[in-house]
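Researcher: I'd like a structural prediction for the single chain below. Treat it as a standalone chain; there are no partners to consider.
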Amino acid sequence: MTKENVAAGEGIPRLALSV
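Model: Treating it as a single chain, here is the predicted structure.
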């Protein structure tokens, strides 16, 4: 995912972002 999504999802587990 884009770095923006990762920064916005700091509190969200990376595993959830990977899905």
